[in-house]
């Protein structure tokens, strides 16, 4: 290990030389109370920045011991320490050409996620960060590099990882808040709920471009008496040991109300409620079953060998819907495929919004049934399947539907939003349904689950691009480049962080190892998750050297992993239904 003065000497020696001379920096530097690791040195000032780690002994970090005790607390604390370090990067300056002097810490947004930015060892805590080694043109800027590596980087790491006694209250509040959210989530199952929205929660966001809470004129949530539940907190909040709020029961629940009365906003909060939120988000006491999957129409998406006969059969031209494939699915077939894929990945509930659904997938009213005979309509609308999803498979649905009252016949509960206020309209809806019977005929179609699960074929995944065997990147949260393919992830509304997208890409590559031609997609995901459980997210790095900076990853859910695989245009699956004759 180098001493600080040896690093300074080395930088003085290479000052003014070609940029490649920086390669000599690889290795560890003793910073006294911390160790700097220079794991990867960029090839030129415009390349991806260099990868550094700073490790601080826990004895020197001063973190409150109780906050390290459980897995949830460590996850929350690591998330917070990364945010503190990221805040400290704001004062680092650009020094030279390209990315010279730029320091980056991969901290999260409003959601709290497991990520690789900060990790705990038995007796240390480590920050993984990126920095652009300074250059003038393509020459080493030794003095600027010294300021960066001996000044900015240790300062940023200490700002993140080292807690003064005065910081303890803030750390404690953040960690306990996340822990409380997980405590609430843990009670959903026994309470027969799929989601909980505490009274007082602030659901609307500042704007379409900002995920921060709306500050002006936000109407806090109030739960109707009939659907109010109380859940216990692990740590009291403002003296309260319980939180009261709306419990969304299992089964089929509609959200109705006039346009612009807050329906989609409620659904979106519940979508995001599968993750914990930072204190002050407004949705920190909105918690959902982690198995809820948002489903939307996504015409143009690719579909590979999905059994959608539960919703769609007898397509024109005799196309098989027991192993439906399309390079350009329609609104309805894409939505059907997304539901079946979510079930395949183990979803416990579905979230749908009329705003983003295909009308012909959702409804077919009495008049249309009279005009277009059942024999000429391949689609069995969701309306006729939503009950069976719950009654036969135990999969709940929460559906925003302001435009079609035919759903009253199949709903267990109807939530009404009026001026952003929640009301239980279940009884009223039942009365309306009785007073205005629908003239439509219930329609029925094939089974939900395919007899033969899909088996993804490893050879259909090619991560190579150009000279690189593995080239996977996530330029944006909703775009994944896997080898030469670009996967459009705009339909995955519960994907929240670009580092999740990167994790999905590298995870798909890792998962091909488990694709042996017999494992189903669900089994491949099980194996991938078990592998990451064993070795942590660091394993996602395809060039992984144990202990070194793995790059920036945040944990995605298996549903988003599955959804990305399912949208890959090269995906091929094997399924014994391929050869089966079309059913009448
Ligand atoms: P809907 O789906 O019923 O048409 P939205 O959920 O899209 O309505 O909400 C319409 C507008 O109202 C959005 O701009 C949203 O941010 C805002 N909004 C939603 N809920 C609230 C609330 N509780 N308080 C204040 N504004 C809200
Ligand atoms: Mg809406």
Give a quick account of the main beta sheet: strands, pairing sense, barrel closure.
7 strands, mixed
Q: Summarize model confidence as the mean pLDDT.
A: 95
Low-confidence stretches: 577-584
Hetero groups in this structure are:
adenosine-5'-diphosphate, magnesium ion
Topology record:
Layout: E1 2-3, H1 4-14, E2 27-30, E3 35-40, E4 50-57, H2 58-61, H3 71-88, E5 103-105, E6 118-120, E7 124-131, E8 135-136, E9 139-140, H4 142-161, H5 168-188, E10 193-198, E11 205-207, E12 210-213, E13 228-237, E14 240-249, E15 252-257, H6 263-272, E16 286-288, E17 292-295, E18 303-306, E19 324-326, H7 331-344, E20 349-353, H8 359-362, H9 366-371, H10 386-393, E21 396-400, E22 413-418, E23 421-424, H11 426-435, E24 455-456, E25 472-476, E26 479-482, E27 485-488, H12 498-511, H13 521-535, H14 558-567, E28 573-574
Parallel strand pairs: 1-2, 15-21, 15-22, 17-20, 20-21
Antiparallel strand pairs: 2-3, 3-4, 4-7, 5-7, 6-7, 8-9, 10-14, 10-16, 11-12, 13-14, 18-19, 22-23, 24-28, 25-26, 26-27
What does this structure look like?
Helices cover 28% and strands 22% of the residues. With 584 residues, it is α+β, with helices and mostly antiparallel strands. The strands form eight sheets. Strands 1, 2, 3, 4, 5, 6 and 7 form a seven-stranded mixed β-sheet that branches. The protein is built from 14 helices and 28 strands. Strand 2 and strand 3 form a beta hairpin. The structure holds adenosine-5'-diphosphate and magnesium ion (MG). Adenosine-5'-diphosphate (ADP) binds next to helix 6.
């Amino acid at each position: 290990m180098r001493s600080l003065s040896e690093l300074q000497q080395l930088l003085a020696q290479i000052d003014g030389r070609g940029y490649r001379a920086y390669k000599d920096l690889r290795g560890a530097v003793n910073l006294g109370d911390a160790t700097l690791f220079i794991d990867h040195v960029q090839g030129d000032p415009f390349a991806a920045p260099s990868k550094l780690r700073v490790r601080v002994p826990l004895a020197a970090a001063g973190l409150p011991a109780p906050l390290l005790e459980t897995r949830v607390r460590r996850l929350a604390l690591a998330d917070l320490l990364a945010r503190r370090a990221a805040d400290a990067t704001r004062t680092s300056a650009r020094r030279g050409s390209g990315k010279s002097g730029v320091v980056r810490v991969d901290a999260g947004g409003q959601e709290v996620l497991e990520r690789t930015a900060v990790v705990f060892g038995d007796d240390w805590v480590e920050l993984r960060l990126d920095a652009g080694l300074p250059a003038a043109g393509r020459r080493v800027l030794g003095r600027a590099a010294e300021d960066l590596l001996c000044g900015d980087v240790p300062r940023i790491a200490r700002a993140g990882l080292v807690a003064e006694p005065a910081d303890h209250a803030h750390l404690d509040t953040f960690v306990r808040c996340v822990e409380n959210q997980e405590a609430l989530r843990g009670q959903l199952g026994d309470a027969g709920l799929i989601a909980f929205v505490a009274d007082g929660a602030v659901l609307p966001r500042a704007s379409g471009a900002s995920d921060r809470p709306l500050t002006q004129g936000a109407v806090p949530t109030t739960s109707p008496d009939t659907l109010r539940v109380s859940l216990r907190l692990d740590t009291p909040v403002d003296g309260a040991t319980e939180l009261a709020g709306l419990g969304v029961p299992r089964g089929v629940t509609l959200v109705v109300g006039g346009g612009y009365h807050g329906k989609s906003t409620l659904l979106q909060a519940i979508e995001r409620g599968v993750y914990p939120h930072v204190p002050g988000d407004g949705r920190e006491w909105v918690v959902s079953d982690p198995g809820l999957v948002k489903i939307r129409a996504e015409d143009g998406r690719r579909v590979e060998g999905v059994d959608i006969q539960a919703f769609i059969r007898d397509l024109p031209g005799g196309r098989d819907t027991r192993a439906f494939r399309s390079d350009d699915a329609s609104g309805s077939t894409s939505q059907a495929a997304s539901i079946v894929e979510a079930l395949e990945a183990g979803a416990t509930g579905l979230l749908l919004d009329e705003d983003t659904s295909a009308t012909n997938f959702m409804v077919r009213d009495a008049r249309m049934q009279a005009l277009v005979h059942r024999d000429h309509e391949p689609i069995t609308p969701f309306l006729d399947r939503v009950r069976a999803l719950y009654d036969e498979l135990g999969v709940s649905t929460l559906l925003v539907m302001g435009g079609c009252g035919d759903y009253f016949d199949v709903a267990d509960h109807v939530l009404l939003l009026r001026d952003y206020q929640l009301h239980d309209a279940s009884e009223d809806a039942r009365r309306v349904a009785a007073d205005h019977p629908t003239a439509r005929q219930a329609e029925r179609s094939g089974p939900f689950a395919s007899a033969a699960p899909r088996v993804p074929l490893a050879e259909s995944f090619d991560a190579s691009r150009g000279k690189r065997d593995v080239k996977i990147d996530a330029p944006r949260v909703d775009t994944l480049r896997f080898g030469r393919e670009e996967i459009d992830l705009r339909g995955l509304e519960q994907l929240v962080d670009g580092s999740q997208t990167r994790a999905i890409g590298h995870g798909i590559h890792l998962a091909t190892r488990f694709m042996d031609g017999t494992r189903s997609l669900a089994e491949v995901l099980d194996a991938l998750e078990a592998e990451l459980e064993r070795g942590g997210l660091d394993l996602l790095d395809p060039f992984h050297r144990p202990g070194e900076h793995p790059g920036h990853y945040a944990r995605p859910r298996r549903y988003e992993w599955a959804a990305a695989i399912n949208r890959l245009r090269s995906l091929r699956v094997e399924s014994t239904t391929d050869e089966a004759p079309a059913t009448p």
